[in-house]
Design goal:
single chain; alpha+beta; Ribosomal Protein S5, domain 2; 5-stranded mixed beta sheet
Amino acid sequence: MEVLNTSGRRKTAVARVYMTAGTGSIIVNGKEISAYFPSTAQLYDVNLPFTICNVAGQYDVKANIDGGGYHGQAEALRLGIAKALVLVDEETNKPLLRANGLMTRDSRMVERKKPGQKKARKKFQFSKR
């Protein structure tokens, strides 16, 4: 099996994913995944596509992630892995992943700050006098 190259995005995080057949190791920015993500919830998010498709431990993943925080990076990596699994076997994996909501990019972004306001929606305190 050749190297499958996909990408995933969430908020401002971008994950470039390179997947090959292997033993199930996941390397993110040169570190082991358990050392990179501090929370078990993020580890669960990243491994979710493998468990849904019943291929846990069959593929090695190397990923480069830029931008965002831990949560956005974990979900960007999850989308990249899901896309790579679809390239492996589309007719089996894509319906499973789509039914669990893993094939859709979450397009929610931070709302911009408006001029004359404290934040996007918060206003400065009003003073009558």
